[in-house]
Amino acid sequence: MRKAMAIALLFCSLSAGAQSRYDDGPWRFYLEFDQMFVLKFGAEYSLSPHWGVKAGFGCSVFGPTTMGYELVGVYHIMNEEDRFQWDVEFGLPIAYFNVFEGNVVDWDPVVDDPFAGWGPGASFVWGYRFAGGSVLSLKTGGLVVFEYQRDSGWRAEPPFLPEFALQWVW
Known about the structure:
The protein is mainly beta. It is 12% helix and 55% strand.
């Protein structure tokens, strides 16, 4: 109980501090479409004018049983007033799972068991800020993918993959 109260108190104090620094609040929301064809909805919580934490969740548009998520730290290089927004994101930009494949549906004839993958890495985000404050960005970076399938086990060699995504923040 003490831990829950301490976490709630810390969260409230961070919210109050961030709220006093920004007129529109510490929260920003976004949609992202990545190279795994996952459309994610997420939120960014600003810890300071340059630092933040982002988390998003969504599903693949071609195989809705595949879910994707991300949890990354963000460093905003440019000021909020500038026309261009450059950010660095680091952490877990791509992660995915499918518990239905092989159990409920058979979308892929090659994959017959549930799977999960994690792609830790870093990205550089190139954004353009519109007059209303929303930002349209291209995310480019690299990550290493670790994948596990229930019956097959871990993938032998985790491959290095480039990362590409389109992001709209409001």
